[in-house]
Amino acid sequence: MGAKRDYYEVLGVAKDADEATIKKAFKRLAIKYHPDRNHEEGAEKKFQEINEAYQVLSDPQKRAAYDQFGFEGMNGGQASGGNPFGQGDFGDIFGDIFGDIFGGGRSRQQGPRVVPGRDMRVRINLTLEEAVKGIKKQIKIKTLVKCKKCGGSGAASGGHVETCPHCHGSGHVYVRQGFMNFEQTCPHCGGTGRTIVNPCPECRGQGRVEDTRTLTVDIPAGVDSGDRIRLQGEGEAGLNGAPSGDLYVLIEVAPHKIFTRDGNDLLCEVPISFTTAALGGVVEVPTLDGKVNLTVKSETQSGTVMRLKGQGVRSIHSQERGNLYCKLIVETPVKLTSKQKNLLREFEASLNADSDHGELSKHKPKSNDFLGSIKQFFTDLKG
Known about the structure:
Number of strands: 15
CATH superfamily of the largest domain: Heat shock protein DnaJ, cysteine-rich domain
Helix content: 25-40%
Order of helices and strands: HHHHHEHEEEEEEEEEEHEEEEHH
Strand content: 25-35%
Oligomer: single chain
Largest sheet: 4 strands, mixed
Number of domains: 4
Strand order of the largest sheet: 10-11-15-14
Radius of gyration: 38 Å
CATH architecture of the largest domain: Ribbon
């Protein structure tokens, strides 16, 4: 036989092809050249070449060695024909992909089929306080549980389990149609590979029954919406004593009236009076641990954010705690009396009068900046 062809060339894929592309290429060529359907001369050798290339390129370690060292990195894989890796006949890998076609290939599943219970999901709604501090919650779930009468075996008292005589315990049978063999789940045992003599009347031989369970879930402090807690083995019971699935508890934290959560930080808006913003003062703000006093400096502008260190949420993964950020909102007085309105007008007039050379008031820095920007904007337009 001549020189070996590059494995990528054999499968007709690029060297950077992903696993799915390689697998698709192999399936297409394997169907075309499989000896059970292609009886042309050289088809079997062609299939062996395809199989050899796929065995290398579908294995990350072998592929890496081949990419770096070529055929020399295959540890004796240069022999022509046959299987270069001593891993059984060339039908094995074909059977692994197709599972039930052409025969010669071996099913991935050997022996009885184990049917574990399904995983389950349940959603728990928490308040922000519950999520931050942690809590124990009771939940009720309707699911399949192990039959108490037979202990999950599926057999009644005096009954017993036998190997299925139709599939001989494999859980599957082959049906031949023309030149192809199709694998099917054994219809007599449902793929379990066994039959029950005198099945349990409570579960009808299934080993599980439907019931409602009550569980206590320990919610750790610091969880947030989107987090999930896995309770291993608390899901649906498996068939005929097979392992149970898991239960996933999905966390949903309800919106809070005061705080908005951002990771481990909390945000809140604190309204302050016009007088407090201008003269400074102390305002009372809420935290998850109680009320604290916040000192506001004089001449504070609306929208100023102040930080209260360590008043946020404690991380679920460490003892580090976030911060509380208070956004100060200057509240405009409403429902003023005539006297109050006149006082404000006098106050506004005094601000405007107390200016340098009749220019903009020195008491309104933001207004000055804004009006100056407008003036420059129209000057630039004219220029």
